[in-house]
């Protein structure tokens, strides 16, 4: 649930309620099944509470699934492995809400989506060891999200340059990028 808006004060029964949620799935078939279940549950709740109107549903802000191209991903992952060594890794399947894939899909261009860390490394390791990633490390849609400037900016720059060099045929021959000073 992203937001719920109903009424203006505690002692007046509202004439409407607006619920907004963000639904994330791994397949379009699962998405359709969950949307149908949400529709059934909301309709049943309206009927059970004697709502004089049927609920309205509006789908907006929908993003296509981000499905990395295997060959593109392999090429960039190999370049990252050569450049970053053990700092490079793979991501588990995620249900990110991203518009990233809209542009390459429009041009039928193969793509790969990667992520860099933005948390202070000691805080990250402590959260992993304590089993408290969800509680202690704010995700990018959290109001508490604030990547540390360094090494996030340096790593992001290195990742972009390394990926570009994988496509320009110079991967593995790059000198390390000088660190930014602030």
Write up this protein.
By secondary structure, the protein is mostly helical. Among the domains are: 3-48, no CATH class; 70-115 and 148-168. It is built from six helices and two strands. The chain has a two-stranded antiparallel ribbon with strand order 1-2. Helix 2 (70-84) crosses helix 6. The chain is elongated and about 65 Å long. The two termini are 39 Å apart.
What are the SSEs and their pairings?
Layout: E1 3-6, E2 17-20, H1 28-48, H2 70-84, H3 102-106, H4 121-130, H5 133-136, H6 149-168
Antiparallel strand pairs: 1-2
Helix pairs in contact: 2-6
Q: Distance between the terminal alpha carbons, to the nearest Å?
A: 39 Å
Spans where pLDDT lies below 50 across 5 or more residues: none
Order of helices and strands: EEHHHHHH
Structural class: mainly alpha
Sheet with the most strands, sense and barrel status = 2 strands, antiparallel
Q: Categorize the overall geometry.
A: elongated
Task: Give keywords.
mainly alpha, single chain, elongated
Quick rundown:
By secondary structure, this protein is mainly α.
């Amino acid at each position: 649930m992203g937001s719920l808006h109903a009424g203006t004060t505690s002692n007046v029964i509202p004439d409407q309620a607006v619920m907004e949620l963000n639904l994330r799935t791994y397949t379009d078939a699962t998405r359709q099944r969950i949307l149908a279940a949400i529709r059934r549950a909301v309709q049943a709740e309206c009927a059970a509470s004697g709502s004089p109107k049927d609920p309205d549903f509006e789908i907006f802000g929908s993003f296509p699934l981000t499905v990395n191209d295997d060959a593109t991903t392999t090429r960039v992952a190999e370049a990252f492995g050569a450049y970053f060594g053990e700092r490079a890794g793979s991501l588990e399947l995620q249900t990110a809400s991203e518009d990233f894939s809209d542009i390459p899909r429009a041009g039928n261009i193969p793509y790969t989506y990667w992520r860099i860390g933005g948390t202070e490394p000691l805080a990250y390791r402590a959260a992993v060891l304590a089993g408290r990633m969800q509680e202690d490390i704010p995700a990018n849609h959290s109001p508490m999200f604030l990547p540390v400037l360094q090494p996030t900016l340096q790593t992001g720059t290195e990742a972009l340059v390394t990926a570009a060099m994988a496509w320009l045929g110079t991967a593995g021959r790059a000198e390390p990028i000088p660190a930014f000073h602030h």
